[in-house]
Amino acid sequence: MLDRVSRILTRKPKLVAMIAVALLIPSALGYLGTRVNYDILTYLPQDLESSQGERLLEEPFHMAATSMLVVEGMPAAYTNDLIHDIKKVPSVSNAVWLSNAVGIQIPVDFIPGGLRDMFYAGDATMMIIQYDKSGADQETMEAIDEIRKLCNEKCFLAGFSVVIKDTKDLVDRELPVYVGLAVLLSLAAMSLTMESVVLPFVFLASIGMAILYNFGTNIFLGQISYITQAIAAVLQLGVTMDYSIFLYHRYKEEQANWEDKRDAMAKAIAAAFTSLSGSSLTTIAGFLALCFMRLTLGRDIGIVMAKGVVLGVATVVLVLPALLLLFDRQIEKHTHKNLLPDFTKLNHAVIRRRKGLACLFLLLFLPAMYAQSHTGVYYKLDEALPQDMASIVANNKLKDQFDMAGSHFILLRDDIPATEMNLLEASIRDTEGITSVLSYHAMLGSGIPDFFIPEELRNMLKQGGYQLLMVNSSCATASDEVSAQLDALNEIVKAYDPKALITGEAALTDDLIATSAVDFQVTNYISIGAILLIVAWVFRSLSMPVVLVAAIELAIFINQGIPYFTGTVIPFVSPTIIGCVQLGATVDYAILLATRFREELQNGKGRVEAIEIAATASDGSIITSSLVMFCATLGVGMISEIEIISSICVMLARGALISAVMSMFLMPSLLCVCEPLISRTSLHWRKAKADRKGEAAEEREDPKEREKIGTP
């Protein structure tokens, strides 16, 4: 069946190419129709109390998103007019300031102290703006744009929803630069490591199609995160490039056996499909491990990237052969000398020192593991953004002038007696770090008659059998102080209402920290376990998967441990993604080397000679593949102003190089030293299955032959 399909593909290359191009149209429509989510906190498990509280804010309180507008040095009349204009903005559900709380005609000195402290700080005043939709919704972002247009230079719009808006604008500006830089640097890398000037363009055309197919099919997911959108293209480019290289190399080998290049390509397709479907399993497993994160951001990235690898393999097998046949003449015409050096002498020197290098491998493990486990991470999302962004500047003003580093939203049943509410609110105010409390009961207690409270303010604070307390805090989000504060508040409110909920950015982030800590361990164990099983199945070996995965795990530990030595604190999501992606994507380097090593052993070579041949034959492919992944991700890591994206891409780029160095220097030594153990714990190791029939035992390697090259 595969031979028939490959023959059809090679006989109609123009038709195949036309179909591939035509499929780009629905892919582009699917890409445009896929929503991008810029709010990482929405990926928290929905059974958490903070997530349940967010849903209550959306319905019945219509407070899915809230922002604070700080107005400096302007008369009350300006702020009063401004709030009326803001209320008219579509998707704004409510806007609260003193004018609709106690009336603009009341002098500031006569306003109750609790309200005055909340809404005034020196010559600055603050209003609260609420939106119908969530902070990541397009309508909310449009409303934020409209509000900013109504404001002058002395107005500062703060809040998490505004940060989301600024994040979107920044990603939209940077994304074309990401892709363009990844393409240019990948072209440069391929031009250095390939013998044809045209071939890199053909490879990029094929991979570009696969990327567009992947992004187009995301429409079935409904939405993807902005992190996925930012890194998926460059990651797919880096991960799947070696599939294209493998097909082309196999095609060139088959040309010596066939007069018709189409027959050579058909044979190459059949061989490539069998090989790539196996080798891609490790990469797919690495990505799918992310789907087991409770933080569903992992599932978002995992599904998109696993799908990207599958579509990458399909494009290499179905579309790339047609492109290679169509441009074969141009590829052959524009060739140049291979710029990669010969690695024979290097590998000879490496293998001579194999015992020392194997000991070095063992010695590196403990410090690498220690550094990796002690690398600092942060969870405060706005720390990953440029500090000169308008929303970050406004948030800092809110913190400095109103002592509001964050706000908690407490939802309680609305039938709690007034005496108990007095005690509850007093306990909340006495909690360390709490600066102010706004509630319906507190306003009544300040001397404002019930009939005098405007309906819109009443509706903001009491809805559907619930009452809302807006509690402002001086403790920074994602800090130990705010975590202790949330624990204290939770204990207080649960004493009066066991079903009370606390939500807001700080509460959601606190749950994010707890969830991510578990996710990191779970995904690592699953990715390692899955890849161990796949490698064991591929090699029919018990020891080979341990050797290969241990080598790449050391590369991962070194990569993740470098920030510890440099004193760098990285975003919380980086280690989890790197742990799965680097293992899945770069274990292929080790598999390539080990496969060739086994082939040479089965051809009758001694283990020293076999590993030298295997290493020399594999080094070019390892360097090309790792350089492409390095270049595709490094550019994004260097230019992105969003540190979450920058950190992931820098670590992926660095990880590709570290894994390549591990595969070229330490892996050959490990395979050579461990070969006797591998031979005893593997099926058909020294002899192919078909060659073992009728043979009593394996032919033993001659010790004299083994030492011809020399020992350390």
Q: What is the C-alpha radius of gyration, as a whole number of Å?
A: 31 Å
β-strand percent reads 5-15%
Give the averaged pLDDT, no decimals: 86
Q: Tell the overall outline.
A: elongated
Q: Could you name the ranges where pLDDT drops below 50 across 5 or more consecutive residues? A: 692-712
Largest sheet, in brief, is: 5 strands, antiparallel
Secondary structure category? alpha+beta
Helix content: 55-70%
Explain the layout of strands and helices.
Blueprint lengths: L1 H10 L1 H10 L1 H10 L1 E3 L11 H10 L6 E8 L3 H12 L4 E5 L16 H7 E2 L2 E8 L6 H13 L4 E4 L1 H34 L5 H19 L5 E3 H30 L5 H29 L7 H22 L1 H7 L1 H6 L10 H9 L1 H20 L3 E2 L11 H13 L3 E8 L4 H13 L3 E5 L1 H6 L9 H7 E2 L2 E8 L6 H17 L4 E3 L1 H35 L4 H23 L3 E2 L1 H30 L4 H33 L3 H38 L22 H4 L6
Parallel strand pairs: 1-7, 8-14
Antiparallel strand pairs: 2-5, 2-6, 3-5, 4-5, 9-12, 9-13, 10-12, 11-12
Helix pairs in contact: 1-11, 2-13, 3-9, 8-10, 8-25, 9-10, 9-12, 10-11, 10-12, 10-25, 11-12, 11-22, 11-24, 15-25, 16-23, 16-26, 18-21, 22-23, 22-24, 23-24, 23-26, 24-25, 24-26, 25-26
